[in-house]
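Subject: Sanity check before I submit

Could someone independently write out the structure tokens for this chain? I want to compare against mine line by line before I put it in a report. The sequence has 179 residues.
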Amino acid sequence: MPKNSTDGNQNSAMRSPAAANSTLTNSAAERSEQNLDAVSQNSTLENSAEKSPYGILDEIYHVCLDRKLNGESALSYVASLYAKGENAYLKKIAEEACEFTLACKDLSRSELYADVAREGFGEHRADEPRYDVIYEGADLLFHLLLALAAHNIHPDALLDELARRQGQSGIEEKRRREK
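---
Independent answer below. Compare away.
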């Protein structure tokens, strides 16, 4: 996600897939006007998720699909990444994974050493390394959803794969792959 973690289109246009699909027939100008109206009515993912019958992962995934098909890169962070091409959003996944890793390391260090001096990166809450892990993890998950939407793979497919693996020994599973 961009460092301010907001995208006028992305955060405000969280709506059911049916509502997202209704914009498919609208002109770009109408979509822009709708998106601006949505920004003023509902500017956070939390509010949208509370009002939606869909889970937040599903909501974000469908917004990404909508931006892939209808987004205007000047108005939408997601559409701008799609317009730049696959390398742009794949680089964001790598960047966010690195920031998540550093945030985890900072949290571990702060748990071991109360007086540790943390390196600052991104826009985080001062002296709240746990929040940094959550913030960067959310950025990583968001960009992963964007990449999944690019390939029309619903996040439930990942959850299904995790469920399939549940109860299996990771060591045994890896041994089976090596043969």
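---
OP: Matches mine. For the report I'm noting this point. Residues 86-112 form the longest helix (27 residues).
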